[in-house]
Design a protein that fits this description.
alpha/beta; 5 domains; seven-stranded parallel sheet; 27 helices; 21 strands
């Protein structure tokens, strides 16, 4: 049902009026209200350049969701400072009792994390996921989840588990994802939307009609910095060494494409390590060649982005490492090579840094032109420290630095409190230059700057967009991009610009496709139960320790209803008779060595009629350990003949999930087997026995059994309770209640036994 257009009205002063938003707090912007109205209709990914008020959209959607009384609203952000920033903004703007707004951090006492006591909860994703796993959060009571910096939702990030459990457990979920850059290719964007169970995409650029009135013009200035002849010659020598190492590796291990980057070389290294006969001398030597190449590629990147000083520092660390006992011999060959020695001598002759000189010149010019604030972005901590020192020598420049919490050698990190203080002093004008590492690119509330300077470049389209977004909010802005010519620095610049353009093109295509289909066939619909009763979904009980495993995300993507529990036996319970223990090939072989494998096999076969061991990985005979193939084959034979274990194999997490799902589907839907955890420790007390007894009921696991006993006091009263009485217990809906009563009251039929 479409949201009414009168939800967000405007007063004569241009502020939004809404029953739950304080007067005079939020300026009305048409694109924000338009996007908010669209987001109230269904799960939505909002993509806006940094500084255009994504948090305001979250506020508007949450206010309306709270007004209609639809459960608790949850706002998640990757870092504690960002969570606190959102908490303070909402608390300042919302017209509700502040006692109903909770900030959950590691310092929040567990006793105060009572979910149902609040209407709004702010937390980091890791903490919130843990509260879900502990059973302290009832996702069926959640009316909205906001995922800030939504582009983080990839791999095993906690956002994915939260989103997939939410849409599985809540009858009317609403998800709002916020990001400045969802990815540069369609596959990345669509994967992000799948991971967050999102179907709708709303994005704007600074040039869009409803955005343009609220933003200022941004001028781009590309400033090439030519390399000196000394540096050019040194680069040529270093690159020659890298090429030589890669070519030697390719002779021993042919590869479809000659690797040139750190990532491509790493792929080749992993391919060699997966070979069954890694003890071949030529393969061992190939690995050493590639290791040397990776070290020098890393060092060359320092030279290309920052200058000679940082290359020399990197080489010095290699020299120091080779002097330590037990240092790998292949490192010594780097610093013994004549090309590297010559390159080092050439770079030592280069006394100045042309890029740093250009930055000083630029900063003086901007200061003289009346610029009030300058942000300089530098990827490397060491460079940021030197930049701060050099800029501080310029009269009129008051410089401060913003870095992450981790400490580096000779450079202490900044705590969250120190970061907040730096930003506060920059906003107040006490400092007019902020030198920021990557921590300043994402999320933190940094005031708009008149001028942004890229001291170095990154191939990430996401980081490019985030850096640019720090200017041109309230006044025209300028972006200066410095780069060393004909180096990776320049390559990274054009890669980032290309990815930014591609991102916009891909989002337009996705949005156009979605708009052209009222009833989209988008694969995400598998996530969301459109009128499908929960009892028709495949249910899988997963051990808590597997919660961060990509298999769980894949299962949720397939549509499985997942329940987490502390399992005594196995990792995935698929029915009353099937339990799966999952192991990667490396874990499988290490468990043979320490004898865990056979202890687990015994528990599995003693507890379940069909015990299953799933081994995940490309080649079980090429693990990281040096166990003999004959020992692996012997262990497999023992599992089958001695423990009656069913062995299945998969290549990766996706295939593991598909196998697990297929088995559960047949067991539960075709063979009508109940989902039941077995193999728990033998009950010792009456209370343990009571819980164990009720855990045998359909769709009732240990946590729900305890809730039933707390409410009804005895198992007998549970057995005698009506469907209506059972539904008084938290976590028992009409479906569970009906299934429980059916098992307790239906006449036994021996012919139905299997």
């Amino acid at each position: 049902m479409a949201a009414p257009q009168s939800i967000f009205n405007t007063d004569p002063e241009g502020f939004i009026t809404h029953p739950l938003i304080k007067n005079g707090k939020v300026r009305a912007r048409s694109y924000q209200t338009n996007i908010s109205l669209a987001a109230l209709k269904g799960n939505t990914l909002v993509v806006l350049p940094t500084g255009l008020g994504k948090t305001v959209i979250a506020l508007l959607v949450a206010a309306e969701r709270l007004r209609t009384g639809k459960g608790v609203c949850v706002v998640l952000a990757p870092t504690k400072p960002l969570v606190e920033q959102h908490y303070n903004f909402f608390k300042d703007c919302l017209n509700i009792d502040t006692g109903l707004i909770a900030l959950w951090t590691g310092e929040t006492p567990v006793a105060k994390r009572v979910f149902t006591d609040y209407r709004l909860v702010f937390a980091t994703p890791q903490l919130f996921r843990n509260e879900i796993l502990k059973g302290n959060v009832q996702l069926s009571h959640v009316g909205l989840i906001v995922f800030d910096e939504a582009h983080r939702a990839k791999g095993n990030y906690a956002y994915i588990t939260i989103a997939q459990r939410y849409v599985s457990e809540c009858s009317s979920p609403l998800i709002l994802g916020l990001t400045a850059s969802p990815g540069s290719c369609r596959e990345d964007i669509e994967e992000l939307m799948r991971n967050l169970a999102i179907k709708n995409l709303e994005f704007r650029t600074r040039d869009d009609r409803d955005v343009a009135p609220y933003v200022k013009r941004v001028e781009y200035h590309l400033i090439p910095v030519p390399l000196s002849p000394l540096v050019k010659e040194a680069r040529s020598l270093i690159q020659s060494f890298i090429n030589d190492q890669i070519n030697q590796a390719l002779k021993a291990f042919p590869w479809e494409k000659k690797p040139s980057s750190f990532t491509e070389i790493t792929e080749m290294v992993n391919a060699i390590k997966s070979r069954p006969f890694l003890d071949k001398p030529e393969l061992v030597e190939a690995l050493k060649n590639l290791a040397r190449a990776r070290y020098l590629i890393t060092a060359l990147e320092r030279l290309d982005l920052l200058g000679p000083k940082y290359f020399l520092q990197f080489i010095s660390r290699i020299v120091e490492r080779t002097r330590k006992p037990g240092a790998p011999k292949y490192l010594s060959q780097i610093i013994a090579d004549k090309r590297i020695l010559d390159a080092v001598e050439l770079l030592r002759l280069q006394k100045d840094n042309a890029k740093l000189s250009k930055l000083l010149e630029l900063a003086k010019k901007e200061l003289e032109s009346g610029v009030r604030r300058i942000i300089v972005f530098a990827s490397y901590r060491a460079a940021s420290k030197d930049i701060e020192k050099e800029l501080s020598s310029v009269e009129g420049l008051k410089v401060t630095r913003l870095v992450g919490q981790a400490s580096k050698i000779g450079d202490k990190g900044q705590s969250q409190k120190e970061q907040d203080e730096v930003l506060s002093r920059f906003k107040s004008g006490e400092f007019n230059v902020l030198v920021a590492t990557q921590v300043g690119e994402e999320g933190l509330d940094i005031s708009s700057s008149d001028t942004v300077v890229f001291y170095d470049n990154t191939p990430s389209g996401i980081r490019f967009v985030q850096r640019v977004g720090r200017t041109g909010r309230n006044a025209p802005g300028k972006v200066y991009i410095l780069y060393f010519q004909d180096t990776r620095d320049e390559q990274y610049l054009w890669i980032a610009r290309r990815r930014e353009r591609r991102m916009l093109e891909e989002m337009r295509m996705i949005q156009s496709r979605n708009e052209s289909k009222k009833e989209s066939n988008y694969a995400l619909t598998r996530f969301i139960p459109h009128g499908e009763a929960f009892e028709d979904k495949v249910s899988i009980i997963v051990d808590n320790r597997e919660s961060a495993c990509p298999v769980v995300n894949e299962l949720a993507r397939l549509g499985a209803r997942i329940t987490f529990s502390q399992l005594e036996v196995g990792d995935y319970v698929l029915s009353e008779r099937i339990c799966v223990e999952r192991k990667t090939v490396n874990d499988f072989t290490s468990s043979i060595i320490d004898s865990r494998l056979f202890q687990q096999a015994k528990l599995l076969s003693d507890s379940y009629e069909i015990p299953v061991l799933l081994i995940e990985g490309r080649d079980v005979y090429a693990p990281l350990s040096n166990i003999r193939p004959s020992a692996i084959r012997g262990a497999i034979a023992a599992l089958i003949t001695g423990y009656k274990i069913v062995l299945i194999w998969s290549r990766d997490a996706r295939e593991s999930a598909e196998l697990i799902y297929a088995i559960a589907l047949r067991e539960q839907k075709e063979l009508k087997k109940h989902l039941q955890v077995r193999g728990e420790k033998k009950p010792e007390t009456v209370a343990d026995q009571q819980v164990f007894l009720l855990s045998g009921l359909p769709l009732v696991e240990r946590t729900t059994a305890i809730k039933l006993l707390k409410y009804f006091k005895t198992p007998l009263r549970v057995f005698n309770a009506s469907e209506q009485d059972l539904q008084q217990v938290e976590g028992i809906g009409d479906i569970k209640a009906r299934r429980i009563r059916e098992v307790l009251t239906k006449e036994f039929n021996e012919e139905d036994l299997t």
